[in-house]
Amino acid sequence: MKKKIAIIGAGIAGLTLANLLKKNSDFEFMLYEKKENLSLEEGYGIQLSTNSISILNKIDFQRVNQDHIYHPKGFDFYNIENKKICNLDLDEFNTDKNKYTTLQRSTLIEFLKDEIYSQHLRFGKKIKEVSELKNKVLLKFDDNTNDLVDIVVVADGIFSNARSFFEKKKNEPKFKKAIAVRTILKSEFEFNIDKDKISLIMGKNCHLVVYPINKNKDLNIVCIIRNNKYEPENIKSLIEKKVLNQNSKLKKFFNKDIKSWPLYSTPRILPSSNSKVFYIGDAFYSFLPTLAQGAGQSIESAYELFNLLKDDSSNINNTYFLQRSKRAKIVRNRSNLNFFVFHLSNNFMQLTRNFFMNFLLKKKFFIDNYLGKVYKN
Ligand SMILES: Cc1cc2nc3c(=O)[nH]c(=O)nc-3n(C[C@H](O)[C@H](O)[C@H](O)COP(=O)(O)OP(=O)(O)OC[C@H]3O[C@@H](n4cnc5c(N)ncnc54)[C@H](O)[C@@H]3O)c2cc1C
User: Once rounded to an integer, what is the mean pLDDT over residues 202-207?
Assistant: First the structure.
């Protein structure tokens, strides 16, 4: 008899797994999403490095309208006065088929939902109760429907609610005393950057990342500001005080509609305590955005689990956890280091950092080790 899988949460992780299952296996599966629809409004931009693009191409990502994505040539690093520090070429990681890609989150979700929307996705579903029955898991939902399945894949994001039904140990995300602000810019501005590339601008206790998200070269701007409190009503004055006072030319970046949210990350990497339950994406571990790997790791975790399920490997739970936690630690360490390095406030420390960045980004052994280990998985 076919095994039945319930996936909880239709974000990037859950949708990727659903696509892999649909294309390449004969599992029965259903995706349960708590919201009433998938948000397809102009979301923030995301960067997908080659490790995740190579997986997406297995489910025909090449078919996405090429006008709606962009392949940046590389990174340029600047100080907040717009002085270039160094650059990084992305060509060494790109192949003809798998290229570093930037796009809007909604473009990715639109693509991922296509194949599974009608048959494999149920909206307005929130777990109310779980129990074990005849070696299976019985899921009961808020709307009094239920499903009896062999495997549950929890993909409901950083504040995973489903986790609390299966785990005694808490792993509540911690506020990182930093705030993310984002906007899309379609007009001109005074800051001098190359619009074909990803620009990373480092200031005191803040950094900005600017990159094109489509062939029109509309620019996604994300600014991370260190601050002890998150007060959404005071965001404009926070930007004024902590970013624009370092360079007023950045004002144009924040003229339009801006969105903000507090940054959280998961304190620990914990295994599943139930052999029929798996965690993927941010529900497994949530990274700081400073290596731009959140979505990429969500895609990777779905692929790792898919391969183990497809091959019907023995001791899947243990193998999945070992593989995923090893990978998550590599990404976590680099994301945390970047978080520290991008925000240095002391002038001498900044000059030292700039010197080392300039030196190291020219060294192949460093690039292969620091980024190659992430991008060439
Ligand atoms: C500022 C910022 C910039 C970022 N930039 C990048 C980037 O450039 N590149 C990158 O790779 N990543 C980036 N990320 C991270 C990335 O967006 C996330 O890591 C990724 O979206 C996580 O995917 P997910 O599917 O695990 O979770 P989510 O996208 O959070 O999806 C979870 C889904 O589960 C649903 N859900 C929640 N609770 C329940 C429930 N109880 N029952 C059923 N459904 C439920 C939710 O409605 C949602 O649809 C960034 C993040 C931030 C904050």
Answer: 98
